[in-house]
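Quick illustration, no need to memorize.
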Amino acid sequence: MKLTIVASNRDRLDLGSKITRWFLKSLAWQDCKDFELVIADGGSKNYEEIRFDFEDLISTFPINRRIVQHKIGELFERAKLNNVGIRNASSQYVLCTDVDMIFGPNLVSTVLKIMDANTFLESRTMYLNSAQVDMIYSGKLDPLNDINACRIGRTKKRTTAGGLQCTSIENWGKLTGYNENMVGWGSEDYELLTRAGMAGLKVKWIGEAGDVMVFHQSHPKLDIKKDLECQEKNKKYLYNVKDYKANTKGWGGINEP
């Protein structure tokens, strides 16, 4: 395998939900199959159920996939869980994203054409509203056969980084992954991007010229108040980056000297 796709999860992944089914479907239809999927779970209530479901999906979603668990505290910890996924990857390159995305069918092939030892890859993300997502679910929009028709949402700005980050497994080790002081979600991707530049990596973007391949599915927020509180706390790390290494005592669930 050349690529591992890592997605963090707690209480979001559900094989009965349209969000999860479309996330997996958009990976199953990739025109390049040289990748594996690793779900890094933070202690979901339905963990045993989704673990069993993953093992039972081979005929429906013929992609290489694994689920690993690292229980976290009360708050969601996207940075730490992404790192857990990275530490469990078995590929030359590791791409981190989220379980509420839909990917264009040439995402993996595009990523692998770009990647090399010195590249840090980011992607612009298109945010689909609920009406647009419902049109995909109902078949009125078809991301597999007519992706251009689906490019009708709001594209996330560069200043908030992207819907995926990808670099070599060696570079993930050099950066020591995402900053695990950052909790919830918000700013951990841009803080990582800042450190990648400090480390001398060449930052490249995809999805810039109307060819977005990463789409965020609209869904209700689990706890908006907590999300905002975490984002405010994370900003102090975003605005005070001093070293390209983030975690000095180990990362991704592994303690190191």
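The CA atoms of residues 76 and 184 lie 5 Å apart.
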